[in-house]
Amino acid sequence: MIGNPSFVYRKEVGEGLVIMTTQPEHAPQLEALQQIVFPTLAPESLMRKEHYLNHIRIFPEGQFVVLHSARVVGMTTSIRYHLTLGEQHTFDEMLDGGFLNTHDPTGAWLYGMDIGTHPDFRGKGIATYLYNARQDTVKKLNLNGQFTYGMLSGYGALKNKMTAEAYYQQVISKKIKDPTVSRQIKNGFVPHGLVAGYVNDPVCAGYCAFLIRENENYKLKQI
Ligand SMILES: CC(C)(COP(=O)(O)OP(=O)(O)OC[C@H]1O[C@@H](n2cnc3c(N)ncnc32)[C@H](O)[C@@H]1OP(=O)(O)O)[C@@H](O)C(=O)NCCC(=O)NCCS
């Protein structure tokens, strides 16, 4: 184990699946999984093995994989960050070329940078386990909660039929089921607005929902 984590996560969840803190030996498989999970994302926005090794070094408590035997079938990457409402930045600006040295060890929030499940393993609760593993870190480190920019993955196909705002409103009022954001809402994230131009991916035409899941131990009056 490198990076001297303050704790190590490992949970067996049935069907031969194990959720655990990412280890250096997972890095090559994670690089391959990125390309499978984000097939239309701009190539320069994809994380590679050298990036994963840095994430494990700077913030091991925020990195998780899901294993089926020795195969990596799910993943999530996160950093700590001071959240300022109304702040504008893009995914690539935060990405720091993939290395994520934007991580602030004193940050009061967990910032979920990505999450993905191999297509052969979807619908088994893997993303749910990963969001919960992140929330476990939130609680262990006494953070305010986790936030993310959820890709509105169903919008790209509809962008000539409706505005992104109309699509977003229908997703949050549960009239449209978005493949990514509806699941995040189901997983306890609360939508806090539509963000244009966050990510360079036609699947969502760049649009994301800004989402917050608070630490249940510290219900905040105001964010
Ligand atoms: C979004 C994504 C991560 C979801 O992964 P997943 O592991 O399939 O998600 P889950 O299994 O937790 O949830 C999927 C469904 O299975 C259901 N489910 C959960 N646990 C289950 C279980 N044990 N058995 C069967 N179904 C289960 C969930 O309720 C959910 O149902 P819904 O479609 O009605 O919401 C995955 O589709 C993906 O990798 N997409 C591409 C990348 C992406 O968009 N990433 C997010 C960027 S912000």
Q: What is the tally of helical segments? A: 6
Q: CATH superfamily, please?
A: Gcn5-related N-acetyltransferase (GNAT)
Strand content: 15-25%
Report Rg.
16 Å
The largest pleated sheet is described as: 8 strands, mixed
Query: Helix and strand string, N-terminal first?
Result: EEHHEEHEHEHHEE
Ligands bound, unique: coenzyme A
Number of strands: 8
Fold-level CATH name: Aminopeptidase
Give the low-pLDDT segments.
none
Alpha-beta content class = alpha+beta
What does this structure look like?
This protein starts with 9 loop residues before the first strand and ends in a 9-residue tail after the last strand. It has a single domain (10-214), classed as Aminopeptidase, CATH 3.40.630.30. It has an 8-stranded mixed β-sheet, with helices on both faces. 25% of the residues lie in helices and 24% in strands. α1 (27-37) crosses α2. It has 223 residues and is α+β, with helices and mostly antiparallel strands. A hairpin with a 4-residue loop joins β1 and β2 (17-21). The longest helix is centred in the middle third of the chain and has 15 residues, at 126-140. 39% of the residues are buried. The protein has helices at residues 27-37, 49-58, 91-95, 126-140, 164-172, 181-186, and strands at 10-12, 17-21, 63-68, 71-81, 109-117, 145-151, 190-195, 208-214. Bound molecules: coenzyme A.
